């Protein structure tokens, strides 16, 4: 699956659905972002059931501010509308795959219970 460009207009619609959404916050001028992009794209090709979205922090400053993005690239994982992971840094492929495995393995009933308390 190709990556999806996320904007202030479509972010909530994409992120609040069921399933997993991985979001790459990036900018054109960012060297580590450019190194992470092929890793993110490759993973998108392997996981057809996951939405891989990209937020250009320069074009979408409102989203960057909303999520407190202070360092890029930042990877955010959302599952069933809940942010379950957010870390800055360009991840190697093996670490990205590990994050995906962990997000898939989450007990979402437990996550929702903890979010409510």
Automatic annotation (TrEMBL):
Sorted UniProt keywords: Disulfide bond, Electron transport, Redox-active center, Transport
CDD domains, A to Z: TRX_family
Keyword hit for Electron transport: yes
Similarity-based family: Belongs to the thioredoxin family.
Domain of life, per lineage: Bacteria
Protein name (record): Thioredoxin
Chain ranges of the Thioredoxin domain: 1-105
InterPro entries on file: Thioredoxin, Thioredoxin-like_sf, Thioredoxin_CS, Thioredoxin_domain
Pfam families: Thioredoxin
């Amino acid at each position: 699956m190709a990556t999806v460009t996320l904007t202030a207009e479509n972010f909530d619609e994409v992120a609040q659905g069921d399933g997993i959404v991985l979001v790459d916050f990036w900018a054109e001028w960012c060297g580590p972002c450019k190194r992470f992009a092929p890793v993110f794209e490759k993973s998108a090709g392997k996981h057809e059931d996951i939405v891989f979205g990209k937020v250009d922090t320069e074009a979408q400053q409102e989203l960057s501010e909303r999520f407190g993005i202070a360092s890029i690239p930042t990877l955010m994982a959302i599952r069933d509308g809940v942010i379950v992971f957010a870390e800055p840094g360009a991840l190697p492929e093996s670490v990205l795959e590990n994050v995906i495995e962990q997000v898939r393995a989450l007990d979402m009933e437990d996550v929702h219970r903890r979010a409510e308390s």
